[in-house]
């Protein structure tokens, strides 16, 4: 059986909230990480300067989402549709169209989920 890939690398949206609950919605280039993205946008101070790490700890207490919208590739057959994720943060949930596909607890193990259209 032939396997075709459609990589979803590119512009996604990082969604979350700051330490006081104000929404954060940022365009991001995947792959990326939350802390450096927030630092680049001046939401966090330079993390490794003096005692700034203490001011960045609130990020770990919040939920962060990476979201993208994509069209189903024309070549995709519904019986063989698989979404595969690699290198996602240690604790993650994966959803497609508001349906939970699954969860992971190890960024060094890729996850794949069979999906139906």
Describe this structure in words.
The longest helix has 7 residues, at 34-40. The mean pLDDT is 85. It is built from 2 helices and 7 strands; from the N terminus they run ββααβββββ. It has helices at residues 34-40, 52-55, and strands at 11-17, 23-29, 65-67, 82-85, 92-96, 99-104, 111-114. It is elongated and about 55 Å long. Strand 5 and strand 6 (99-104) form a beta hairpin. The strands form 3 sheets. Strands 2-1-3 form a 3-stranded antiparallel beta sheet, with no helix packed on it. A two-stranded antiparallel ribbon has the order 4-7. Strands 5-6 form a two-stranded antiparallel ribbon. It is mainly β.
SS element count, helices: 2
N-to-C terminal Cα separation, in Å?
Answer: 20 Å
Strand content: 25-35%
What is the number of beta strands? 7
Helix content: under 10%
**What is the overall pLDDT average?**
85
Main beta-sheet strand count, sense and barrel state = 3 strands, antiparallel
Low-pLDDT ranges: none
Strand order, largest beta sheet: 2-1-3
Radius of gyration: 17 Å
């Amino acid at each position: 059986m032939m396997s075709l890939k459609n990589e979803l690398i590119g512009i996604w949206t990082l969604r979350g909230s700051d330490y006081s609950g104000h929404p954060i919605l940022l365009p991001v280039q995947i792959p990326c990480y939350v802390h450096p993205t927030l630092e680049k946008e001046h939401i966090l101070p330079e993390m490794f300067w003096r005692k700034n790490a203490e001011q960045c700890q609130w990020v770990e207490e919040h939920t962060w989402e990476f979201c993208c919208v994509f069209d189903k590739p024309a070549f995709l057959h519904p019986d063989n549709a698989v979404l595969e994720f690699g290198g996602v943060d240690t604790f993650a949930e994966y959803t497609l169209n508001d349906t939970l596909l699954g969860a992971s607890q190890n960024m060094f193990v890729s996850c794949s989920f069979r999906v139906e259209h």
